[in-house]
Amino acid sequence: MTRVLVVEDDAAILRGLKDNLEAESYEVLTATDGEVGYELIRDAAPDLVVLDLMLPKMSGYELCKKVRDEGMTTPIVMLTARGEEADQVLGLDLGADDYVTKPFSVRELLARIRALLRRTNPEPTALDELRFDDVIVDFRRYEASRGNEKIKMTRKEFGTLRLLAERAGLVVTRHDLLKEVWGHGHEPTTRTIDNHVASLRAKIEKDPSQPKRILTVHGVGYKLDV
Amino acid sequence: MTRVLVVEDDAAILRGLKDNLEAESYEVLTATDGEVGYELIRDAAPDLVVLDLMLPKMSGYELCKKVRDEGMTTPIVMLTARGEEADQVLGLDLGADDYVTKPFSVRELLARIRALLRRTNPEPTALDELRFDDVIVDFRRYEASRGNEKIKMTRKEFGTLRLLAERAGLVVTRHDLLKEVWGHGHEPTTRTIDNHVASLRAKIEKDPSQPKRILTVHGVGYKLDV
DNA sequence: TCCTCCGTGACATCTCCATGACAACCTCCG
DNA sequence: CGGAGGTTGTCATGGAGATGTCACGGAGGA
Q1: What number of other Cβ atoms are within 10 A of residue A191's Cβ?
Q2: Which tens digit of pLDDT belongs to each residue from B216-226?
């Protein structure tokens, strides 16, 4: 099972993350200060670390640097309070792999974690489920429902929605979709993508003519807001 | 976007390389003889050149030498037919940066290209977010806000602002903007840029008629002060 | 075979962009 | 100090390009 370490001093946030991560079937370790966090990274070898920037004893900053200086490559997602810090986290060669700005959406953090694990772990960590409003999409079972109604979705629709969900909140270009969902070689017209998005909207949007979830970013691509 | 020029007279190979490079999100220019190749290197300023040794009009050999003699440092990967030639390419201080021997593996060539780009063009850390005053711009989400109000920005506006932000404090010329934001081929009047700057100011400046953030440097360009 | 799903093209619609004209401005030099 | 020439700010407008939508034909699986 994939093991995630969360280092966070705010008890409420820590609890929330732990619950959510466990609901996603991760094994969760926790620490509330930098020193314990460091020991756990070293001794428990988690597959990924979620690290708050502000911490007692040793800041996330120092912790990240120390870990990297000692040659460990454990993927780290930073929780940063403000935007300016974010740049530094990734920029100053601190060695964090991704970051999320507080206040963050748990859903987004989970998506980032999944993406990062997939990027760094050879074994693909698939996104299992997507939920919003009264819509539930289960990517493992290839099933979807809305309220009590089942929704019939096709393979390409699942693929498209899944990529959007894995990058929840971020813009996904048509090119990305072609590459990830259609794969090498097969490269249909971009018209095709619009059609699949249209049919997705017809199935999961409350008002398909006024999409609130699958948004168009003119000239760029689409993004999923959850 | 990173721009790669491929100079190759064999149509099949050229096509294959173009497809593969585009699949890796490079912008690809092509030429089938040395003379056109030379003009493109000079005028289109690609980030990297893949150069066949045997070419009509001007051989890859001459082309490489000419380019270097004129002081251009564009990284060049040579495609050589036989092993013996390879040594010469690098050895006779022709100025190529790397080479691949035909028949080559596309995967290997792509890896060489990536490595060479990393070596020569350390990519400026992609900027995700920009904040000042009560303005927040998120370049990954293509979202912007000011206080609690969402700001609607277009693709070109995001691109323009992003380049300014990546070089915060430094002057960015109109030429730079055309090259980075508009890309090769499309080259509108510089008037167009003024218009985009104007609409950016209207959206993010407190008093658009007295800009404090996006400043004009008369006769040179614009710069962002944050 | 039948049916589902996918890719494509055509068309309507909408957004965004490029352009040119003119006014305001800056700079440099007389 | 003032004026000329070049540069920039601003606006309105036409049009290019992107997207939404629909219907059709074909491929492949059941």
Answers
A1: 8
A2: 999 999 999 98
